[in-house]
Design goal:
biotin--[biotin carboxyl-carrier protein] ligase activity, ligase, binds biotin, 7-stranded mixed sheet, BirA Bifunctional Protein, domain 2, 239 residues, SH3 type barrels, alpha+beta, aa-tRNA-synth_II/BPL/LPL
Length: 239
């Protein structure tokens, strides 16, 4: 992972560029990094705040031979790799994974993960995993509407942090986790870690599924990575 590397000052979105390169036949493991994104994107058509020179915005191309239904597991896997890589910087950071694709600390979002894929004949042709990490953005630099919900690593550390070291640590962790995941054919080896890393367990949550809002209490994830939602009547809905 990352042996082929594209680094740009500005891109619309590293996910968009990586998807185009994947479509054009680039090798698995290629990574695209940008200093800033003019159209950084998140899940559910949200945008991703991408100021220059502060944070990490990168995407890599994978070509796993898996069923498309397994692809969302990669976001959970990446969240765990990311958390472990960041805890290497500072083991006492209160980093928690939030199903399905975020990293939080002290009630603020630090990082988001966006997996996008392309399928052919019901097989996954390629997956792009895009990660944005708020590293050195200060509270004042965040747009007012994000100030209460977003945080950054430098706010936790009280000092600026080396982005290249953090990127290298994330890629190293993800590469070995990904190989394990491929070998096991799923998340089995990571379920205990998810339990200790998850911020949602036993919390009341509202989740949207196919345009429908479901309320309940989060009760962990299934081995396939679905959220287990305990509903008012005690039944479990998987999302
Ligand atoms: C989310 O929280 O909804 C996911 C956010 C993902 C943002 C990253 S930044 C790098 C990559 N390029 C993008 O356009 N999006 C992802």
């Amino acid at each position: 992972l990352g042996r082929q590397f594209i680094y740009e000052q500005e891109l619309v979105s590293t996910n968009r560029s990586a998807l185009e390169l994947a479509e054009a036949g680039c090798p698995a493991g290629l990574i695209v990094v940008a200093e800033t994104q003019s159209g950084g994107r998140g899940r559910m058509t949200r945008s991703w705040f991408s100021p220059p020179g502060r944070n990490l915005y990168f995407s890599f191309v994978l070509r796993p031979s898996i069923e498309p239904a397994m692809v969302p597991q990669l976001a959970l896997l990446a969240a765990l790799s990311l958390r472990r890589a960041l805890l290497e910087q500072c083991p006492s950071w209160p980093l928690k994974c939030k199903w399905p694709n975020d990293l939080w600390a002290d009630g603020r979002k630090i990082s988001g993960i966006l997996c996008e894929m392309n399928c052919r004949d019901m097989k996954t042709s390629h997956v792009v995993v895009g990660i944005g990490v708020n590293v050195n953005v200060s509270r004042e630099e965040l747009p007012p509407e994000l100030r209460d919900s977003a945080g950054s690593l430098c706010q936790l550390a009280g000092r600026a942090l080396p982005r290249a070291d953090i990127l290298a640590a994330i890629l190293n962790h993800f590469e070995s986790d990904y190989n394990q995941w491929l070998a096991d054919g799923g998340l089995t080896a990571f379920l205990d870690e998810w339990r200790s890393a998850s911020v949602l367990d036993n919390c009341a949550v509202k989740v949207e599924q196919n345009g429908q809002l479901h309320q309940g209490v989060a009760r962990g994830i299934t081995p396939e990575g679905f959220l287990r939602l305990e509903q008012a009547d005690g039944s479990i809905r998987t999302i």
